[in-house]
Structures are given as structure tokens and as C-alpha cells.
Write a structure and sequence with these properties.
The chain is α/β, with parallel strands linked by helices. The protein has one domain: Protein of unknown function UPF0759 (TIM Barrel), CATH 3.20.20.410. The chain contains eleven helices and nine strands. The strands form two sheets. The chain has a six-stranded parallel sheet. Strands 4-5-6 form a three-stranded parallel sheet, covered by helices on one side. Helix 10 crosses helix 11. The longest helix is centred in the last third of the chain and has 15 residues. The two termini are 20 Å apart.
């Protein structure tokens, strides 16, 4: 599999975004607050310069009970076990609905100090309103997650595939009004943003000027073999098939690795990412990497294996990664072939 940093073949040049632009000057938050919500007094937790956060799309999966998590893990307390496996989660739940305040409180009680929630903005903002006339909805969202401020990673703005260059003005206006004392990441899916030139260059320049991360999705492993299982067929239909854009426009790159059902194949297919992530960490960036497979059966172990391989790729002398917790495992661990 080709180097994700390559710009040959299907990877056209990324315009003016280069390593020199990875550390963009700070943007004043005073004029960027949307509505009345500000993170200035929330004491968002600091992270070591040598940190790698890894995780999955969710922290609760029935198939993990007895396979990875203890057989007696109570429903509703999965996060307290998951946090020993991974130190981050994508938090897809907020894309569909705002969690209740009591739910937020429960998550806060179960999260470890260095754990990071990388929530997605509600689809009412990104898909229904398409980032327009959505300031009050954003205020509601930020108020709701405020109790988790110390555990927040990049908040993801996942845009629909139909959101393209014609919507750039709406994107620019929305991003310019965000409270920049939160960390943000934008995921685009329109093909024009992956072709270089007229559409992609302004996008990358905008994100870099605001120190907003561009979510990087790599689904090559999934699409490298014909689907055989029902889960693989569903994933082929649902997951984006777009060129990989390994560009860091902010200080906390978000990388979503969409793998194959066979875990060893996924780890091999992702091999070019390990030195790339190690390089970013050496530059002072704080990557957040999420592993996906068609059935997500082995996603927690895959996330830990990715961490191990990036750790092995860290140059010496240099910073060392903060270790992951010792996982709470099933009492009788199933034999899983990795």
C-alpha cells in the first residue's frame, strides 16, 4: 500500500499546506464566540506533547462482552471498561441526538483523566441546516457537553457528501465564528475537495489559518478486497471511497482508519501510517486515531496494536509516548488470532 504522504498517482499536490504551516499562529477567541458559549473558563485538559490518543467509533458493543470486556460488564458501565483499552472515542452518539445531562454526568464519572471524547456536531447543524442559521443549535450543543470540557478532544464537524465548493462560503463563515478555545476538526466528503487545486487548496488554507484540523479518512484497506460477509457488503455501501489526504492543518490531526474484517490485514495495510504518526508526534502534534472494521468486532484490540506500532516507530532519541492503561479483560479471554 502506498505511503499516505505520497502525492503521486491518486494523491495530487495539496496546494499551499506544508509542514511549515502546521503550527499556525493563534487565533483570537474573543471575536469568534458563537452566541454566549465560551470555553475560556472550562479548563480544557492539557495533553502531553508526546501523546497518541487511539480509540473506536463507540465504547459499547455487545460483541465485545466476553471477547474483550469481562463477561459481567453491566449495561451502562461499558465506558469504565473501554477507558482501560483506549484513551479516546469518536462519540458518534451526539451526531444523532443531544445526550441528557444525567448521561453526560455518568460519562464524566466513568472517564479517566487522560481520556478524550471526540464528539461529532449534531446532524441538525451539519446536514439539516448545512451550517447556516445554526448558532443557537451550536450553543445548545456546547452547553450540554460543557461538564466534559476537561475530557474533550477535537470536536468533529462531519459534512455530507453533497456539501461541496458551492457551500464554501457557508463553511468559512461558520468556522470563523467558532469559539477557538475548543479544538475542532472538519471532515469533508465531496470529491472536489480531494482533487487539489481550485476547491481543495482554499479549504486547506482556511483550516490552517484557523488551526482547525482536517479529518483524514483512509478506507483503502476496506476496499482492497472484494466484500464477502454481510458486514463487508454494508461497509462497501456506506463508507466513503476517497483519496487519502494526510495533511495536518491543526495541532490535533484526526485519522479514521477503515480496515478489513481480517485484523492482521488491516494492521499491515496501515503500515505507512505508523512512521507518519510518529513524525507528527515528534513535531509536537497530538494525533487522535480511530480504528474501524466492517463489524468492529476487534476494533479495541486493533486500536491498541496501532498504538504499539506507532510507539515502535518513534525515533530515538526523542519523546516517548504516554503508555495506554492495562486493559480490563474478559476472565477467560477468547482465543483471537492476530
Amino acid at each position: 500500500m502506498s505511503d499516505p504522504s505520497s502525492t503521486s498517482g491518486e494523491q495530487p499536490p495539496l496546494g499551499s499546506v506544508a509542514a511549515a504551516s502546521l503550527h499556525v499562529g493563534s487565533v483570537s477567541a474573543a471575536s469568534l464566540h458563537v452566541g454566549s458559549v465560551s470555553a475560556a473558563s472550562l479548563h480544557v485538559g492539557s495533553v502531553s506533547a508526546a501523546s497518541l490518543h487511539v480509540g473506536c467509533a463507540m465504547w459499547a458493543n455487545k460483541a465485545w462482552i466476553g471477547r474483550w470486556f469481562p463477561h459481567d460488564t453491566p449495561s451502562g458501565s461499558e465506558l469504565s471498561v473501554y477507558r482501560t483499552w483506549c484513551n479516546a472515542v469518536e462519540g458518534n452518539t451526539t451526531f444523532y441526538a443531544l445526550p441528557k445531562p444525567t448521561t453526560i454526568d455518568r460519562w464524566r464519572e466513568q472517564a479517566a483523566d487522560d481520556f478524550r471524547f471526540c464528539f461529532k456536531l449534531p446532524r441538525t447543524i451539519t446536514h439539516d441546516r448545512r451550517l447556516q442559521r445554526a448558532d443557537s443549535l451550536l450553543d445548545d450543543f456546547l452547553r450540554r457537553i460543557t461538564p466534559l470540557a476537561s475530557w474533550l478532544g477535537p470536536i468533529q464537524i462531519q459534512l455530507p457528501a453533497a456539501f461541496g465548493p458551492d457551500d464554501f462560503e457557508a463553511l468559512s463563515g461558520f468556522l470563523s465564528r467558532l469559539p477557538m478555545d475548543f479544538t475542532w476538526a472538519v471532515e469533508v466528503r465531496h470529491p472536489a475537495f480531494f482533487e487539489g487545486g481550485a476547491a481543495e487548496r482554499p479549504l486547506n488554507d482556511l483550516l490552517a489559518s484557523l488551526t482547525i484540523n482536517r479529518v483524514i479518512l483512509d478506507s483503502r484497506s476496506l476496499f482492497s478486497a472484494d466484500p464477502r460477509t454481510a458486514a463487508e457488503i454494508d461497509a462497501w455501501q456506506a463508507k466513503p471511497r476517497l483519496p487519502v489526504r494526510p495533511v495536518a492543518t491543526g495541532t490535533a490531526p484526526v485519522v479514521r482508519l477503515i480496515g478489513h474484517t481480517e485484523p492482521t490485514k488491516s494492521l499491515d495495510d496501515w503500515s505507512q501510517w505508523y512512521p507518519k504518526l510518529a513524525q507528527w508526534i515528534g513535531q509536537g502534534l497530538r494525533p487522535h486515531v480511530f480504528t474501524h472494521t466492517p463489524d468492529n468486532l476487534d476494533a479495541p484490540e486493533l486500536a491498541r496494536r496501532v498504538w504499539q506500532r506507532v510507539n515502535a516507530a518513534m525515533p530515538a532519541p526523542g519523546p516517548t509516548l504516554q503508555p495506554l492503561p492495562e486493559p480490563v479483560r474478559a476472565g477467560r479471554q477468547l482465543q483471537v488470532d492476530f
